[in-house]
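Summary of Year 1 activities. Much of the first year was spent building the evaluation harness for sequence design. The harness presents a backbone, in tokenized form, and records the residue chosen at every position. We chose the following record to illustrate the format because it has been used consistently in internal testing since the harness was completed.
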């Protein structure tokens, strides 16, 4: 009895010094990465008092870093891929010569061809959806005891229950529509009391939010997309975490995040980064200030934070098989470390693609963030793709202006010389943060068709926001919830199921069928994916441009005038050359090119020249 009591007391003592490890991240890793280095974050009560050892052929523990908090260690490993074999090895934590904890760390074999995966490109069209608002595959995960916010569809900023199963069940819908890539807003855990549906306040960087599904469910979803010829883009957030992230209660070190004596918001002035006249305080507050009270600003200049973010991105790429990353609020991060972040990923995966959210109102301000931009500070972001928000602004307005509408597009593209690569520009008429396009054009289907014809034939990588293809609308001014409405048919009791032709209204089918035809055509047209572009000064609000390469020429005519227009073709001889006629992609109607062309009001023609 006495012996039992002593054993119990000893157990109690050891537990009070070292409880179980709370977090080990990355949770596992791989053999055969180009970069042989790995840094493991270990978190647990008083873990810094332990000595650490491991014994595994090909794996060396080269450093153990103690930091400000006694509850963290950072372990530096070097993995020799020629020697190390896939498997698990023990990381031992000892105090006073006795093992107090052991973690079985796993090194996995890489999937075949993993490093050579194909990223998204201008050959693709991306479908952007919000998982919470797309389809509720199962109500079983709507309310989870450990997750603070429960489903409440009666409020437009509440959680509505959409999930990974709902996304997976409608991969065939995306295939039918004809998009070839899907970007969903973030899926990682956001365990906060309210306003969590958007996903941009992450509380665990290694875990899919259980209200969407599990990590395994995400892998399953990615595989399902790949089997249907659809690439997957993961939305990531390196600028900030959520205020409810587990490490906020006990930061590894004070400068893990940017801290101020009193709350300091970012000044939103993105131009300060490249501005040669900007004051230091403005530059500092732009990148170090918080995006929101609920979003602490991560310090990418801290090398532990940067390594954490690089490894986290690579972990998700390698684990889930994704083809691309959309990085949130890109310019709000510290730029030099983020250039290393992008380079590290593109070095591991040379054919991958990353698009940064570069929300600026000037072409020069966006071009600055693209890989190989030429600028006075010789800054190179290594970020392949940027978002063309200037073109977005033109497209939001131009179809409601029958005099100078087309000039807005023409003048925007006239600044393309500022971009290092115009194929790697995301082009879009809306996203989850901007007014619904169909709302801006007052549900005018002709304007929708012109906009879609334009997006699918201009330079860059088109992005479609979920629901636009069935005429969905929403007013940003009444709140973000209105531009993020539930997709009809995604919930069991929906009166309309827009996922099927039979379920759609005739008008919804008109929207859907127009875009679907265009998208399926575009899949095989390298001339509009990567061909050169020549455009003509708009006259009478008619915009004419050509996409061409060695094999084909496509002539696009957008008549944004509110009356029928007849064009003399002589002006376009540089591009028409000896072509005699053009066949419209949408209607199949053939037009003669010898003298003149007549085009109805508010109409787009996409002519394949013969
Ligand atoms: Ca659900």
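For this record, the design step produced the sequence shown next.
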């Amino acid at each position: 009895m006495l012996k039992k009591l002593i054993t119990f007391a000893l157990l109690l003592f050891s537990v009070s010094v070292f409880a179980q490890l709370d977090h080990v991240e990355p949770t596992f890793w791989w053999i055969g990465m180009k970069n042989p280095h790995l840094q493991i974050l270990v978190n647990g009560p008083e873990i810094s008092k332990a000595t650490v050892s491991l014994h595994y052929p090909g794996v060396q523990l080269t450093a153990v870093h103690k930091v400000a908090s006694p509850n963290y260690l950072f372990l530096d490993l070097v993995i020799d891929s020629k020697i190390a074999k896939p498997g698990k090895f023990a990381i031992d934590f000892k105090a006073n010569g006795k093992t107090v904890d052991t973690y079985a760390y796993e090194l996995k074999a890489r999937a075949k061809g993993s490093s050579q995966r194909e990223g998204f490109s201008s050959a693709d069209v991306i479908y952007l959806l919000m998982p919470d608002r797309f389809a509720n595959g199962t109500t079983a995960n709507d309310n989870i005891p450990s997750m603070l916010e429960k489903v409440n569809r009666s409020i437009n900023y509440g959680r509505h229950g959409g999930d990974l199963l709902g996304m997976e069940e409608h991969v065939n819908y995306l295939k039918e529509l004809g998009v070839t890539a899907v970007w969903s807003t973030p899926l990682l855990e956001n365990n906060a009391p309210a306003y969590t549906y958007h996903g941009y306040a992450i509380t665990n960087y290694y875990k899919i939010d259980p209200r969407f599904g599990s990590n395994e469910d995400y892998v399953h979803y990615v595989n399902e997309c790949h089997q249907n010829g659809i690439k997957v883009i993961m939305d990531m957030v390196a600028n900030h975490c959520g205020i409810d992230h587990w490490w906020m209660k006990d930061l590894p070190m004070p400068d893990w995040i940017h801290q101020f004596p009193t709350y300091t918001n970012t000044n939103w002035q993105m131009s300060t980064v490249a501005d040669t006249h900007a004051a230091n305080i403005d530059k500092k507050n732009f990148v170090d200030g918080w995006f929101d009270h609920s979003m602490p600003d991560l310090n990418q200049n801290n090398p532990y934070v940067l390594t954490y973010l690089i490894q986290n991105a690579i972990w998700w790429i390698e684990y889930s098989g994704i083809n691309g990353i959309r990085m949130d609020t890109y310019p709000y991060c510290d730029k030099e470390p983020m250039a290393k972040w992008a380079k590290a990923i593109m070095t591991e995966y040379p054919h991958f693609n990353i698009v940064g959210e570069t929300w600026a109102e000037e072409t020069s301000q966006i071009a600055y963030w693209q890989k190989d931009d030429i600028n006075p500070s010789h800054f190179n972001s290594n970020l392949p793709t940027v978002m063309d928000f200037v073109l977005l602004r033109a497209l939001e307005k131009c179809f409601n202006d029958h005099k100078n509408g087309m000039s807005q597009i023409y003048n925007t593209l006239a600044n393309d010389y500022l971009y290092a690569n115009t194929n790697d520009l995301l082009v879009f008429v809306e996203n989850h943060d901007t007014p619904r396009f169909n709302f801006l054009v007052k549900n005018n289907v002709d304007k929708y068709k012109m906009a879609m014809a334009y997006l699918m034939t201009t330079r860059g990588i088109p992005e479609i926001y979920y629901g636009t293809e069935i005429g969905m609308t929403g007013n940003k001014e009444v709140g973000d919830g209105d531009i993020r409405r539930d997709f009809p048919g995604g919930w069991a009791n929906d009166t309309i199921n827009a996922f099927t032709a039979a379920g759609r209204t005739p008008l919804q089918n008109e929207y859907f069928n127009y875009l679907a035809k265009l998208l399926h055509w575009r899949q095989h047209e390298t001339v509009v994916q990567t061909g050169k572009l020549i455009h003509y000064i708009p006259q009478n609000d008619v915009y004419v441009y050509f996409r061409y390469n060695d094999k084909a020429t496509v002539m696009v005519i957008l008549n944004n005038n509110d009356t029928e227009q007849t064009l003399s073709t002589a002006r376009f001889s540089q591009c028409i050359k000896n072509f005699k006629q053009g066949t419209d992609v949408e209607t199949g109607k053939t037009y003669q090119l010898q003298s003149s062309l007549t085009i109805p009001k508010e109409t787009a023609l996409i002519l394949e020249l013969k």
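The domain at 2-112 is CATH 2.60.40.10 (Immunoglobulin-like). Quantitative recovery figures across the full test set are reported in Table 2.
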